[in-house]
Amino acid sequence: MTQIKPSGDNELLGADVAMREITRFEQFLGPENYRILQGLFKTPVSIAGLLLILFFIFVALAAPILAPPVTPDDPYKIPRDGFKSQPREMGSEWTKNVPEIPFWYKAVTGKDEWVHLFGTAQGQYDIYYGVIWGTRTAFKTGLAVVLSTLLIGIVVGSVSAYYGGIVDNILMRIVDVLFILPGLMATLILAAVLTPVIGRSILPVMISLIAFGWLGYARVIRGDILSIKERDYVLAARVIGAKDSRILFRHILPNAIFSTMVLASLDIGTVTLSFAALSFLGIGVDVGYADWGQVLAFARNWISSLNTYWYIIAWPGITLVLFVMGWNLLGDALRDVLDPRMRGKI
Amino acid sequence: MTTYIIRRLLLVPVLLFGVTVLIFGMLQFLEPDERVALYIRGDPKSDAQVDAFIKKYCLDCPIYIQYKNWLIGTLDSVTGEREGGILFGNFGWSKTGSQPVAQLIARRFPNTLDLTIWAVTPVILVGIWLGVQAAVHHNGLIDQAARVFSIVGTSFPSFVFGLLMLMIFYANLQWFPPGRLTDEFNQVVNSDQFRHYTTLLTFDALLNGRIDIFLDALRHMFLPILTLSYISWATFLRVTRGSMLETLRQEYVTTARAKGLVERDVINKHAKPNAMLPLVTLAGFTVVGLMGGVIITETVFDYPGIGSAAAAASAQLDVITVLGFALFNGLILIVANLVVDILYAVVDPRVRLS
Lengths: 346, 354
Known about the structure:
A: about 350 residues; mainly alpha; 2 domains; 15 helices; B: about 350 residues; MetI-like fold; two-stranded antiparallel ribbon
C-alpha cells in the first residue's frame, strides 16, 4: 500500500484536506470509478440489491444443476408431467417424464423421488422448472435488449447532436413520432405484427422492445453531448487543434455516455418486466416456454380458485418481484452516487 | 402565447403523418390477401374472390397509391360507396371480433372511459396528496413509508399485484369479482327497459334509477381502480414529493415564513401552486394513458375495455384489429399531448415566454 497525499505535495492544502490512504485498487480504477463502486457497497439498501442480483446470477448459471433439463436440446421447454388440466399441489409426485435427479436433491429434501417442488400449472407444466430456467430467459432478454437499445441510442443521439441542423431535425422528429404510442402498446403491436413473420420465440418481443426502447437514450445522449460541447475543455481541445473525430470520441463521448451507460444497465429490470408482461398476455413465446410471465399466465384460467392454486402465482411472482427489485435497489444507490452534487464526497 | 400555440399546432400534422406512416408501415408486413380485410366486411369466400379484391383495391400497387387508398379509401365504381379509408373511420374488419374494428372500438371505449372517470380521483388526487404529505413531513414516518412504497411499487408489476388482489378479494373473500357486471344485471342492461343515455354504464344506471346496477358496476371496478392507483401512486408520490421539497427550499418560501405566515398558508398558498406545475403534465398523461386503455390491468380483471380488446387481438395475431386500436390510440394521444402542452403554457408563464 502506498500513501499519496490527495493533492500533490502542497503543504498548504494538506492542512485542509484530510490525509487518506489510497490503495492500489483505487489507483487502478481511478478516483471517480472507485467512488461509484464504493457507493454500491455502502448502504444496506444497495448491498441488498447487489446480493439479490448475485443470487439470480447464481441461479441462472446453475440452472442445469438446479433443474436438470428433460429435453437437453431445448432446455427452455418446461417439462410436463402428463396433460391433465387440473393443477397439482406442491410436493406431489412426478409420475411421467421424470427428470434425472441431481446430487444435491437428496441432501436438501431427504427424498429419493423427484417431486413437483413448486407444484404444476394447468397442463401439468412444472412450475419449479419454469422459475429456474426463466431466470436465464430474464437475463438473456434483459441484457440483449438493453445492450442493443443503448448502442442504437448512442449512435443516433451522437449523430443527431454532432451533425445538428436538418439531420438532427429529422432524427428527432422520428423519435417524436415513435414516442407517441405508449411503450407497452407500441411493443405489443409490433410483436403481434412480427410474430407471424418470424414465428413464435423470444425474438418478436425482443425486437419490438429494442425498436421502441432506444428513443429515451437517444434523447438523453443528444442532450448531454449538446451541453458538453459547450464546455471549456472542449474549446481548449479545439484551440490546440484537435481533430473533430478526436474531440467527439475522446473528449465528448466518454463524458456524455458514462452515466447513461450505468443507468441503462439498470433498465434490465424494467425490460424484464415488459417481457414478462407481454408473455403474460400471450404474446411472443410459445406456451410452455420457461419464462416467468408465461408461468403466471397459467393462473389466468383458475382465477376463481386461486385460494387453492396460490402457488401458480406465488413462486414466479415472488421471483419476478425480487429480480426487478434487485435492479431497482442497485439503481437507486447508483443514481445517488452519480448525482453530480454527490461528487467529491466518498 | 399565440405564437407558442401556433408553433405547437404546426407540429400536429407532422405527428399525424408520422403515426399514419408508422402504422401503415407495420401493415406492410401482411400479405396482400390479409390486407383485404381493410376494405371488405366479413371473410372472403374463395381464393378467386380474394384475387379480385386485391385487384379492385390495388393491394399490389406501388406503396404511395396504397397509402392514399388506406387513408381516404376507394369509391366503388358501381354504387359509388366509399370502401376503406381510415380518415372516414373505416379501420377494417376484425376477424377475432367478427365486426368492423371501428364498431369494436366504439363498443369497448365507453367502458374504458367509465373506468377512467372513476379512477381519476383515487389515482391522481390521492397520489398528489400523499406526495405533499411526504414532502411536508420530510424524513418523517409518512415520508419513510412513501419511500419504501415507491421502491416496492416500481418493482411489483401490476399483473402480479392484480392476481394477488384477485386471490384475496375474489377467490378467498368473494367481495370484488372480475368482469363488468353480474349476469342478472347484464341481462337487464341488454334488455329494452334499460335506456342508454350516455353509454357510460354507471351514469346510465343512475339515470335509469337502478342504484343496484350502479353499485354492482362499481364493485366490479374496485379492483382495477385499486391496481391502477397502486401503479400510479409510486410515480405521483415521487414527482410531487421531489417538486414540493424543491419548492420549499426556495427563498420566497423562507421569506413567507420569515414574515410570520402560518405554516399552513405557506404550504397551501405559496409552495403548492408552484410545486404543482410538473404535475399538470403527469396528470394529463395519466388520464390519457387510462383513456387509451390500460392493457394489463384490463386483461387481468377481464374488464371489457379497449386495452383488453387490443391484448386479446394481438394474442391471436389479428393484426388488422390491433393496428386499428393503435391508430385510435395514436390519434387520442396526439390531441391529448396538444391539450396538455397548451394547458401547461397557460399555467406556467415561463414556458410560453421562452
